[in-house]
């Protein structure tokens, strides 16, 4: 029953593993254009082993999140059954641990045995494994017997054909489902011609599917070249790295698509799946290639956020709509899981509230109201402390007023909004007006002065108003709660 659903590596075209390039947006793009299988970028076992599997209900993804909240691997339903997880490893036990961690969410696991870069080889990983066949055997056997999904590996060729064939025959015996062969020697650079004769000889020596790789530069320029490369290498399948990175429509049998359109589609996926802006930028720069110094290229290079990048491509509206849709989902989910009444989280009083700018008159904010109230009460100025969540660069503030801490449990898109949200929590808990449109005038802010205030002078006049406005205590808050804010502060101490 399992076998029927197992990913087959016979007669397929795959997106090759590529560090930084093979993240979710690129993989989805490659699938859209016709790739059968997509490999993720090489992820190091030590890093993955520290990750937690998180179901991201807002993005509808599965995230593997590091202790510092960074998303190391993100996948989604659309690629399930076709995504291969490539790991960098030199340790059978750790490899198995990582494979088990991702087993439910990916179609196969692959071990990188071809990367000649120092970051891979220095830990005995990547191409360093090629000189340690016993280690290769131990890792692959452990994986094949330890997980229910197919196991593959990706190698480079060894100095002699004889050695290469005997290595591949040993690998076949471990029970792997396929072997990707990058037809270059360890010392060769990507500009060197690929050795199709080696791949062909390997393919003839084993019965496990061989995936030919290394043809991007001189052999595969268009979709029909893929089949020519497969034949020239006598392989079962083909794997493309650079040709796909430059223009993923190389997978399309309907012919090439203009790079501008390809980049736009890529960016839409990056926005939809909240891809890290630096990663989005990196991939777009790879696609731009020699156009990276064009006006568009310069704009992309200067961009700091996905919003900036969207602007460069005229996709601001798509960006905003997508962000709004995701925010609405986030709100609905957070609200349903968090009640809209104050709850104690350690020593912090929390509520699920968000600062909506449109609910307040121009230049009026909850923070202003809280500051004014604190001054009237002769309390110390409210003190805000903000933290940033690196996973999605969202912010959460805690405000301290009269030695009590208040915080919104909802994360905000900016530090300013997070502070406003924490001020709202404090004001609502204490029953102090917060300055919303339609709220009964509290006298905390002199309305006439507020309306007269010229743009850009809010802070100065605000202080003035504090000094001239009437005390708030015993006005709105008492009417709303039948008690004073100070009494409510005490009241909360006894709440659970
Ligand atoms: C940007 C980039 C990143 C790469 N990262 C990986 C990687 O993570 N794992 C791996 O096995 N190979 C990696 N490679 C090598 C490719 O998978 C592939 O073997 C090589 O580029 C030759 O294929 P091509 O001619 O189709 O480009 C990378 C290549 C590029 C260009």
UniProtKB/TrEMBL annotation:
Coiled coil: none annotated. GO terms for molecular function: flavin adenine dinucleotide binding; tRNA binding; tRNA dihydrouridine synthase activity. Its cofactor is FMN. Residues 448-496 are annotated as: Disordered. One of its GO terms (cellular component) is cytoplasm. Residues 449-465 have a biased composition (Basic and acidic residues). InterPro entries: Aldolase_TIM, dsRBD_dom, DUS-like_FMN-bd, DUS2_DSRM, tRNA-DUS-like, tRNA_hU_synthase_CS. Keywords: Flavoprotein, FMN, Oxidoreductase, RNA-binding, tRNA processing. Residues 365-432 form the DRBM domain. It comes from the Eukaryota. PROSITE patterns: DS_RBD, UPF0034. This is tRNA-dihydrouridine(20) synthase [NAD(P)+]-like. The gene is dus2.
């Amino acid at each position: 029953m399992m076998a029927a659903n197992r990913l087959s590596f016979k007669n397929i075209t795959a997106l090759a593993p590529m560090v930084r390039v093979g993240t979710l947006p690129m993989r989805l793009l490659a699938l859209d254009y016709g790739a059968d299988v997509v490999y993720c970028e090489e992820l190091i076992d030590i890093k993955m082993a520290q990750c937690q599997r998180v179901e991201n209900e807002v993005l509808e993804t599965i995230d593997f999140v590091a202790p510092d909240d960074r998303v190391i691997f993100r996948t989604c339903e659309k690629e399930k059954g076709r995504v291969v997880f490539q790991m960098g490893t030199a340790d059978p036990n750790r490899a198995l641990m990582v494979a088990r961690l991702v087993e439910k969410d990916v179609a196969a696991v692959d071990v990188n045995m071809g990367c000649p870069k120092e970051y891979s080889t220095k830990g005995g990983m990547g191409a360093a494994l090629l000189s340690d066949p016993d280690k290769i055997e131990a890792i692959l056997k452990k994986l094949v017997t330890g997980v229910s999904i197919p196991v593959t590996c990706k190698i480079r060729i060894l100095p002699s054909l004889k050695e290469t064939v005997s290595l591949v025959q040993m690998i076949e015996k471990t029970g792997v489902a396929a072997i990707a062969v990058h037809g270059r020697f360890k010392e060769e650079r990507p500009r060197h011609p690929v050795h199709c004769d080696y791949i062909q000889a390997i393919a003839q020596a084993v019965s496990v599917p061989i995936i030919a790789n290394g043809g991007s530069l001189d052999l595969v320029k268009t979709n029909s070249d893929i089949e020519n490369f497969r034949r020239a290498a006598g392989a079962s399948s083909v794997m493309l790295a650079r040709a796909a990175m430059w223009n993923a429509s190389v997978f399309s049998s309907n012919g090439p698509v203009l790079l501008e359109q390809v980049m736009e589609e890529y960016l839409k996926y990056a926005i939809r799946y909240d891809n890290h802006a630096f990663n989005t930028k990196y991939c777009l720069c790879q696609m731009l290639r020699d156009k990276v110094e064009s006006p568009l290229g310069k704009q992309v290079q200067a961009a700091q956020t996905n919003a900036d990048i969207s602007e460069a491509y005229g996709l601001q509206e798509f960006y905003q709509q997508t962000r709004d849709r995701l925010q609405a989902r986030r709100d609905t989910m957070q609200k349903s899981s968090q009640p809209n009444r104050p709850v104690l989280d350690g020593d912090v009083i929390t509520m699920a509230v968000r600062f909506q700018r449109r609910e307040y008159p121009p230049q009026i904010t909850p923070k202003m109201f809280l500051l004014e109230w604190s001054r009237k009460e002769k309390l110390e100025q409210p003190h805000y402390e903000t933290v940033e969540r690196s996973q999605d660069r969202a912010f959460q503030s805690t405000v301290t007023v009269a030695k009590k801490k208040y915080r919104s449990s909802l994360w905000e898109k900016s530090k300013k909004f997070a502070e406003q949200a924490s001020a709202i929590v404090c004001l609502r808990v204490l029953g102090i007006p917060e300055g919303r449109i339609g709220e009964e005038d509290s006298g905390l802010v002199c309305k006439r002065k507020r309306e007269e205030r010229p743009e850009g002078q809010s802070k100065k006049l605000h202080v003035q108003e504090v000094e001239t406005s009437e005390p708030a205590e015993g006005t709105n808050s008492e009417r709303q709660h039948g008690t004073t804010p100070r009494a409510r502060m005490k009241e909360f101490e006894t709440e659970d």
